[in-house]
Amino acid sequence: MPHVSFVSMSGFRVREAELAEIGMTLPGLRSRAKAIAALPPLGLLTLAGLTPGNWSTSLHEAPALDDALIQRIVSERPTLVAVSALTASILEAYALSDALRREGVQVVIGGLHATSCPDEAVQHADAVVIGDGEPVWNQVLSDAEARRLRPSYRSDAPFDLAEAPLPRFDLLGESERPRYTLQATRGCPFSCDFCAASRLLGPFRTKPGARIRAELDAIRAMDARPFIELADDNTFARGEPHDEMLDVFAESDARWFTEADWRLGENPGVLDRLASSGCVQVLVGLESLVHQHSGMGAKRTSMDRMMDSVRAIQEAGIAVIGCYIVGSDGETPETIDRLRAFLQSDPCADAQVTIQTPFPGTALRRRLASENRLLPETDWSHHTLFDVTYRPDHMSPRELQSGFTGLLKHAFSAAETARRRAIRRETWKRNPSLAGEAQI
Question: Which domains does the chain show, CATH number per domain?
Answer without folding.
Answer: 3-16+40-154 (3.40.50.280), 179-428 (3.80.30.20)
